[in-house]
Amino acid sequence: MEPAAWREGVPLIGDDQVYVMKRGTVYHGSWCQAVADRWASAPRGLLVAMLAEVGARTPCRECAQLVKAARATARDRHTRSGLAQQPTPADWVVPLRVVGLAHGVLFLAAGAEHRGRLRETAVEPATPLYVGGQRDGMLVRLDAGRAEPLLVVQMDPRATFRDGPYQARLRQPLQRSASKPFAVAHIERAQEA
Ligand SMILES: [Zn+2]
User: Fold this and answer.
1) CA of 34 to the centre of ligand 1 (A)
2) CA of 35 to the centre of ligand 1 (A)
3) Which end of the chain offers a freer environment for a tag, N or C, measured as fewer CB atoms within 10 Å?
4) What pLDDT, in 10s, does the model give residues 17-70?
5) What is the pTM of this model?
6) Confidence of residue 76 (pLDDT cuts 50, 70, 90)
7) Based on the structure, what is the number of domains in the chain?
8) pLDDT in tens, 129-164
9) Do residues 57 and 119 both lie within one domain?
């Protein structure tokens, strides 16, 4: 039968097609060495068939390994491209601790394991700090140019500061052109362990 496509004279199989030799007991789901050898030596002995029609033939082992390797590569590529990766719920929360409060400005830092994430995080305008559902301050910037990146919060003058663990909830940036994959949605007090 006709292959799904041709590339530079080589027949390419579709999703439901395989390569078979005129005589043989296996079928090939990819352009493996056996297929390439047959194509080089006797191209007319290489046929394209529907997978549903191969009958008693068994899959070629080399092909199966090629497919496995291709899948692993695709998965690997997917994992390395940060934006394409589906972040896990833990990726969206950065635990913070208070490192200072001076003149109504609160400084929050993340543990070492979360600093990389903070460096991938943007601060967009009007990012609130909530305590008990109430807005007690505004995140003004992320000081990332230091060994320990700090989130800098301008506290509301009427707010009563409460010490303890805080956390940043992240979201995707509002600006589609954002250069970082995350933005701070808001900061809130964390449940004490
Ligand atoms: Zn094969």
Assistant:
1) 6
2) 6
3) C
4) 899 998 889 999 888 889 989 988 998 999 999 988 888 899 999 888 877 777
5) 0.54
6) low
7) 2
8) 998 888 999 999 998 777 888 999 999 988 888 899
9) no
Same domain for 175 and 110? yes
Ligand 1 is an ion; its neighbours by CB within 5 Å are 28, 32, 34, 60, 62-63
Nearest to 133 by CA among 186, 75, 90, 89: 186
Q: Using CB atoms within 10 A of its CB, is residue 88 exposed (0-12), middle (13-18) or buried (19+)?
A: exposed
For residue 148, the CA-to-ligand 1 centroid distance in Å is 53
Ligand 1 centroid from CA 28, angstroms: 4
Q: Span 167-193, mean pLDDT? A: 82
Token pair listed for 35: 């297929």
What are the residues facing 1 on neighbouring strands? none
Per DSSP bridges, beta strands 121-122 and 105-110 are unpaired
| Encoded tokens for 5 | 């496509």
Tell me which residue range forms the domain holding 57: 5-80
CATH number of the domain enclosing 128 = 2.40.10
Give the pLDDT score at 132.
Answer: 83
76 and 95 housed in the same domain: no
